[in-house]
Amino acid sequence: MAIRFGTNPIAWSNDDLPELGGDTPLETCLAEASQAGFAGIEKGNKFPTDPAALVDLLGSFGLDFISGWYGAELRRRDAKAELAAMRPHLDLLKACHCEVMVFAETSGTVQGLMDVPVADRPVMAEADWPIFLDRINELGQRMADEGVRIAFHHHMGTVIEAGAEIDRLMEGTGPEVGLLLDTGHLTFAGEDPAAIARRWAHRVNHVHAKDVRPHVLSRARAERWSFLRSVVEGVYTVPGDGCVDFIEALNPLAEVGYRGWLVVEAEQDPAKAHPLTYARLGYRHLAAAAKEAGFQFEPSAESLAGHALRRPARTA
User: Fold this and answer.
1) Is the CA virtual torsion 178, 95, 48, 56 positive or negative?
2) What per-residue confidence (pLDDT) applies to 309?
3) Which of 213, 203, 221, 284 is nearest to 244 (CA)?
4) For 4-305, which CATH superfamily applies?
5) Which intervals hold domain Xylose isomerase-like TIM barrel (predicted)?
6) What is the residue extent of each domain of the chain?
7) Which of 35, 173, 279, 285 minimizes the number of CB atoms within 10 Å of its CB?
């Protein structure tokens, strides 16, 4: 599959904070995602869970179904139990011909707690690592046998957040466990997305492209904000509106011939950051950066990739 550009509904309505965009109709999200130029979209909590209904609905807006988030608890249950827990979601992805599952280890996570600093996240005990790696290797093989591969999402507030944890995960697993490269979470965690991409480009099977506003990030760290408060205050934004160098982050992927989705995923308060406006800005910047990094992609995206990289005015 050639590289394609997609988005996530979190810019229109937030699954973790339903009050952000909770009254925005799903049809508005899908229509505006299509208007912005995206070819596909990831799952949100307003989406149908019947495969036929989901594909038909997205297709009516010219969108493909990319994948969807799954929060695992492999530190607490074995691979067989995890597979049983994810079965409805896995079957949905299979029925919709998705190639990857957005997969995070969320046991003990603080990502959804408004009053707990993200710095107080859980840390995996040394004795737990071999057990965890064995379980995720087994689960990755079982899922690959069913045609859907793990795209492991390192995430703020979880046990796999820092570069050293990503390295250990990748070093301790086989190719059935792919890496979701998220530029925003890496930057928030104090990592260089380009450095992680250089180390693990050959294992990356999905990309979330979001930018970070450095002045908000500085306050989040200094004042020990929770992850959710950081989101509400605007720590994340779309590509081109923050401090992430997307050309540098995408270069290693282009060099190894990455083929898959580049997904603009920037959770913001839609009352502060008009979703369609930011979706268009993010698409244009990401497409231009991808072209500069050396990617070749579908003609439908070529016109947008020709725009010069620029930084939009900050309104959130």
Assistant:
1) positive
2) 52
3) 213
4) Divalent-metal-dependent TIM barrel enzymes (3.20.20.150)
5) 30-285
6) 4-305
7) 35
Share of the chain above pLDDT 70, in %: 93
Residue with structure tokens 């990831």? Answer: 42
Long-range contacts of 191-198, Cβ-Cβ distance < 8 Å, separation of 24 or more: 191/162, 191/163, 193/244, 193/245, 193/248, 193/249, 194/245, 194/248, 194/249, 194/251, 194/252, 195/163, 196/163, 196/166, 197/249, 197/250, 197/251, 197/252, 197/253, 198/252
Instruction: State percent of the chain over pLDDT 90.
Output: 88
Q: How many residues does the chain have?
A: 316
Structure tokens given for 19: 């009050």
How far is residue 199's CA from residue 58's CA, in Å, rounded to a whole number? Answer: 35
Task: Report d(CA 109, CA 221) in Å as an integer.
Answer: 18
HSE-CB of 121 using CA atoms within 13 angstroms:
24
Q: What are phi and psi of 130, to 5 degrees?
A: -60, -40
Q: Which residues contact 11 (CB under 8 A, 6 or more apart)?
A: 238, 264, 265, 266, 267, 268, 270, 273, 275, 278, 279
Average pLDDT of the chain? 93
**Three-state secondary-structure class, residue 57:** helix
> What gap in Å lies between CA 12 and CA 30, rounded to an integer?
9
CA 206 to each of CA 177, 179, 202, 250: distance values in angstroms, whole numbers, following the listed order: 12, 7, 11, 12
Global pTM exceeds 0.85? yes
Q: What mean pLDDT comes out for the span 165-193?
A: 98
**Burial class (CB within 10 angstroms; exposed 0-12, middle 13-18, buried 19+) of 145:** exposed
Two tokens, residue 163: 């570069």
- Find the DSSP H helices in 60-192: 79-95, 128-145, 163-171, 183-188
pLDDT in tens, 12-37: 998 888 888 888 999 999 999 999 99
